[in-house]
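step: validate -> pass
step: tokenize input -> pass
step: predict -> running
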Amino acid sequence: MPAKRKQSPAETPEAPVIAVLRQHAEVLFAQELEELIKTDNRQRPPNWKLSPWAVATYLMGGTLDNEFEIAPKYIGNRRLMEIAIATLTTDRALLLYGVPGTAKSWVSEHLAAAITGDSTLLIQGTAGTSEEAIRYGWNYAKLLAEGPSRSAIVPSPLMNGMGDGKIVRVEELTRIPADVQDTLITVLSEKTLPIPELGEEVQANKGFNIIATANNRDKGVNDLSSALKRRFNTVILPVPDTEAEEVNIVQQRVTSLGRALELPIEAPAVEEIRRIVTIFRELRNGVTVDGKTKLKSPTGTLSTAEAISVVSSGMALAAHFGDGSLQAGDLMSGLIGAVVKDPVQDQVVWREYLETVVKERDGWKDLYRASRDVS
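step: predict -> pass
step: emit ->
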């Protein structure tokens, strides 16, 4: 029987190249971080990759001494970012607080990426988050075979962050049950994590700290105990002050998302983004931009993050089911979904807004017609 012919390297099928859907901040902005490290000659706290000044520049954007441009990651009040960064240079933990969609998680990720070069030490808060997810778990096969030992412990991101002297992120802190939240009190107060089964403890190395995010608008929120609140320095992130600021945020994010998702469409025109932002701001504030017409507000938050989602969904529709240019009809389905959360109450609010504002506003007739088509 003839032997099988061995495939030559040229005939061997190549392994498919898998592209990551969402890169971590420290990977996506690696060049910016490298340039900042090279030019940053200011004092750095222990275990920090950058000085506080350079971290602020990374977040807010700017031009370095070597003319390299740093893109802004947060568009808003610089002083708020300075307060947040200064907090992390002390032994106080940082709590980023605000309504949904005010870039709390975004800022948290970029702070961790700039300070320690690692934004992956993440504890995602949910109603089912257990104490073990915050402290540590056990490899039960080893535990039964060998008994309690360090090798049988499955470290949590918190334990790893303490040992490595890095920033740990706790997302949606108020969604974690109150008794589990209080697991953090000893860590924040004593900077140690007791392991009573072994009679040992893990002590935090310099550079360790916690950035938590929380909001008070979601259902299922658990209030923080006063003991835990005292151990955080709270920075409240507001919704964007001006329409221009919010338009800028949405434009930057949808352009970035379009590239990441490889949508075969150009970035939408600023005017289309401005219309979505105007609708969100008017319904959120309960009054039209000119202050002449009072409006009812829907039950949803209508955050900047939702505006980004509406425009991104419209881009996908235009790219794959349209002519490649963003039209009112592409935006409207996502827009209605963002506004109408309650099918009864919000439907009334939306209908009233369409008839009293959209229908009568110059240049918005296409949105009005598109809304009727979608309905």
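step: describe -> The mean pLDDT is 90.
step: cleanup -> pass
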